[in-house]
Design brief:
The chain has 725 residues and is mainly beta.
């Protein structure tokens, strides 16, 4: 499908403005006296070096040039280049193949990698997310949110794209997001302060203390964030405590202890139909959102310990254990739903390294085990005629309207076990092979007074690849593998037949696919990474709703087969020390192949073109201006033939499911300084500077005129201050 001329004009107009301003500043910078930039400025514009990047997301530390897989690395300086560091959509903006929907402006996001993870009601599935090596996914592969990530404390992010199930199981069919938080500084005591404030009543403050005392490195931080939201009934508020301690008693033993507490509240304005969008406006909420006081409340405590022991020459063992306690409440016009759960897990792996320089073997054997017990209680609420529609809506109200009628009372248990083998073979100084083999077993059990049910899923997966380090300018890689995506607990206990019980109509999705890519650097000025991929899936999941069960209740089934192929490109060019350009572009051709009723239809929520172009320039020694343009082409909402039909609403001819794309431009101006031992920067950030009106998230619903649309924020301004002592 070809991008329209008008859309291209919009993108080019924004790019012209960015480039013109950057060259004006660059011209001014060339006239300044030459001096060595301070490290905190220079690192922001540094080009990647393949010989220096080491990846840990594959369970063993491997130099990037030796890995036969598409991997994007996001350093902390890039995360912080846009000042409002609160959510993944800003942090991962330059990762091609990753799409993040932020329908609230806060931390509640939907994440897709190569089309995997689309159409979930909340959170995302099929993508493994790890914080300091600890999985946040449940045994069924569901990642409920990214609330535990305080992006201000992030050191770097590694994103592995494609079929990675053979590494981490069913929770990594689409890829892996591996997040590493910062360690403490080298001094005994360091202190940091971050504060930000801006549009829609937003403010955030974070305090951190860290350092190194002997063989102990530590960091502890606390942050509070809140906003009224840009739509009616869309406020959010969070508290986040993050503690990390690393003890190294000897060169052979390393112990890391982690503790995270998250308290996240957000009102749920829900999606609206186009008629309400036209008549009330882009800030309006769903008609039920206010009167039922719809909200989400998450309270979560996670403790974890990782121990690595080098017990012999070329042999080591790593053990990771965690326990997560989560309280979750969601209110809606369907009911007041409580889903508390306890989720312990453990991973153990043994690493053996042996061989000669031209034929060196790195073998890893391991096991992952998780369990979860969730107790769900859902209380009925009155119908709309028995709720006061004129009540005053408060930003932080937790008022509910339960009646003495229990819709769901059940206990859900999950267990997952994964056995894995990784063999990384250095065939020569330039040729490397990587083989992953894994077997997964996932057990689900449901108990209630009226239902007793269980479902078991099991399957082996594999991935094999080669990387050839032809030259510094050309690192070639290729891989082929399989995927195994099981229904998560959310998709199982949302039963379309009745309240309670498992959805017996849904089965796992299986996939086969490969990728071919090349990456490299030319001098210290230019870095590139281009990957082509193809994935064929059977029993692809899809989402639908059931009349009579509420417009906002999502159910899941298997649509049929699909083919997903595309090209992901990342380019980084720094012609001068004070000037850098980055471009991330993904072309995605995702369509169903079976059954015949949907053959050739596009997979919903997957734009064909996604582009981010960013430029940064340093000038007057202390200033850095970063500007970017983000473009997405149109996408579809519905799966069936309605995507080709139209209907008339309020005298306007509507497309049943096709949504036009958008172009958004952002800019951040940062002033950095050093005063004695105090480092600081002050940032002014304008998001969506041309006030583009578009939808940030869409969902299918009962009919074409009831599709759910969530308007994205318009123009916003933020100011942020960082201090480090």
């Amino acid at each position: 499908m070809i991008v329209s001329f008008i859309q291209i004009n919009q993108v080019m107009k924004s790019i012209y403005i960015v480039v013109a301003l950057l060259f004006i500043l660059a011209f001014q910078a060339t006239g300044q006296e030459k001096s060595k930039p301070s490290p905190n400025l220079r690192d922001t514009l540094a080009i990647k070096n393949l010989n220096e990047i080491v990846i840990s997301a594959l369970r063993i530390n491997i130099p990037l040039r030796q890995i036969p897989a598409a991997i994007s690395v996001v350093p902390g300086t890039q995360v912080n280049a846009m000042a409002k560091t609160i959510a993944a959509d800003d942090a991962l903006r330059l990762v091609p193949g990753v799409r993040i929907d932020n329908g609230t402006g806060g931390s509640r996001v939907h994440v897709y990698i190569r089309g995997q993870g689309v159409l979930t009601e909340s959170g995302f599935r099929g993508i493994g997310v790890f914080i300091d090596g600890i999985s946040i996914n449940t045994p069924g592969g569901f990642a409920p949110d990214l609330y535990d990530v305080d992006w201000e404390t992030v050191s770097n992010v590694e994103v592995v794209k494609g079929l990675a199930a053979s590494l981490y199981g069913t929770n990594a069919t689409g890829g892996i997001i591996n997040i590493t938080t910062k360690d403490g500084g080298s001094k005994p005591v360091n202190a940091s302060l971050y504060t930000s404030a801006g549009s829609n009543g937003f403010w955030k403050i974070l305090g951190q203390v860290d350092g190194t005392q002997g063989n102990v490195n530590y960091r502890i931080s606390y942050s509070h964030m809140q906003s009224h939201g840009y739509r009616i009934h869309q406020s959010y508020m969070s508290d986040n405590l993050s503690e990390k301690l690393t003890w190294t008693p000897s060169s052979k033993i390393k112990v890391t202890q982690l503790l995270t507490y998250t308290n996240y509240f957000n009102q749920n304005s829900e999606g609206i139909n186009l008629s309400r969008y036209d008549t009330v406006g882009h800030t309006s909420a769903n008609t039920d959102a206010v009167r039922y006081n719809e909200f989400h409340l998450t309270q979560r405590l996670t403790g974890a310990t990782t121990v690595r022991y080098d017990f012999a020459k070329n042999q080591d063992i790593t053990v990771k254990g965690f326990i997560r306690m989560n309280n979750y409440q969601e209110t809606s016009n369907n009911g007041d739903d409580f889903k508390p759960y306890v989720n312990p897990g453990i991973t153990a792996q043994y690493d053996l390294h042996f061989g000669k320089e031209n034929l060196f073997n790195n073998i890893t054997l391991g096991v992952d085990y998780q369990s979860m017990k969730m107790t769900e209680h859902m209380f009925a609420v009155p119908d709309g005629d028995h709720i006061d529609n004129n009540r005053v809506d408060s930003y932080w109200s937790k008022e509910v309207f339960d009646i003495n009628n229990v819709l769901i009372n059940q206990v859900i248990r999950q267990r997952s076990t994964g056995l894995f083998l990784i063999d990384k073979l250095d065939i020569s100084k330039r040729l490397y092979a990587l083989l992953n083999v894994r077997y997964d077993y996932v057990y689900n059990q449901l108990d209630s007074s009226t239902n007793k049910d269980s479902r078991t899923f099991q399957k082996p997966t594999f991935r094999i690849g080669l990387a050839y380090d032809l030259a510094k300018a050309a690192n070639i890689y290729a891989s082929y593998g399989s995927g195994f995506l099981v229904p998560t607990e959310d998709e199982l206990y949302n039963n379309p037949v009745q309240y309670g019980g498992f959805n017996s109509l849904i089965t796992p999705t299986t996939s086969l696919g490969g990728e071919l890519g090349v990456r490299g650097e030319l001098g210290k000025k230019f870095y590139y990474d281009v990957t082509g991929f193809n994935i064929n899936s059977k029993n692809e999941f899809y989402r639908y709703s059931v009349p009579g069960r509420g417009n906002n209740t999502a159910f899941y089934g298997n649509m049929g087969g699909s083919t997903r192929w595309g090209v992901e490109t990342y380019l980084s060019y720094s012609p001068l020390d004070f000037l850098k350009f980055d471009v991330a572009y993904a072309y995605s051709h995702f369509q169903y192949t079976t059954p015949d009723s949907v053959k050739g239809h596009w997979i919903p929520q997957c734009p064909e073109h996604v582009l981010t172009a960013e430029a940064a320039v340093k000038f007057l020694k202390h200033f850095t201006l970063t500007m970017n343009v983000q473009y997405e082409s149109k996408w579809y909402i519905q799966v069936d033939d309605s995507i080709y039909n139209h209907y008339t609403e309020n005298g306007i001819i509507r497309s049943s499911s096709e949504r036009t794309g958008f172009t958004v431009a952002n800019a951040n101006l940062k002033y950095s300084w050093k005063l004695g031992s105090l480092l600081g920067d002050l940032s002014f950030y304008c998001k969506n500077m041309f006030d583009e009106q578009y939808f940030g998230f869409t969902e299918p619903n009962n009919g074409p005129d009831y599709n759910s649309y969530q308007a994205a924020p318009g123009r916003e301004f933020f100011v942020s201050l960082r201090l480090r002592l």
